[in-house]
Structure to design on (133 residues):
């Protein structure tokens, strides 16, 4: 797909919303760290209002979940049962994603100011389709 390396997930949602089939350019088990924008914004707000005395660093990682391409497809199918998809792995895309971090260690954020994402993949899928209505 055009655009960024990890844009395939977004393209899958767009295809599903249009009723078009989609070809994932990765194997079903390939995943990437993902966070719902509302959780990200909430995290920034929490950090902005956190007690400075509790902060152990100046920069923090935030992580929510790491869905595989198959999990993304399954989540889409829950909402768009007619969604047709397949997997045709692109070796370049796969090799880059295999070396990318799957989980960003966010233990300091959780400990220092109570970071805890509330959205999961299915929540994100619902929100994405609602935005495309």
């Amino acid at each position: 797909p055009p655009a960024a390396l990890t844009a395939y997930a977004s393209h899958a949602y767009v295809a599903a919303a249009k009723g078009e089939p989609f070809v994932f350019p990765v194997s079903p088990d390939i995943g990437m760290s993902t966070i719902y924008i509302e959780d990200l914004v909430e995290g920034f707000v929490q950090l902005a209002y956190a007690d400075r005395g509790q902060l152990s660093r100046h920069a923090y990682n935030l992580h929510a979940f790491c869905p595989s391409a198959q999990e993304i497809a399954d989540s889409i199918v829950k909402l768009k049962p007619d969604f047709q998809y397949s997997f045709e792995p692109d070796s370049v895309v796969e090799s880059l994603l295999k070396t990318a971090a799957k989980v960003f260690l966010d233990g300091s954020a959780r400990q220092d100011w109570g970071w805890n994402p509330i959205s999961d993949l299915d929540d994100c899928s619902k929100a994405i389709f609602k935005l495309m209505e």
Q: What stands out?
A: Residues 36 and 46 are 15 Å apart (CA to CA). The longest strand covers residues 22-24.
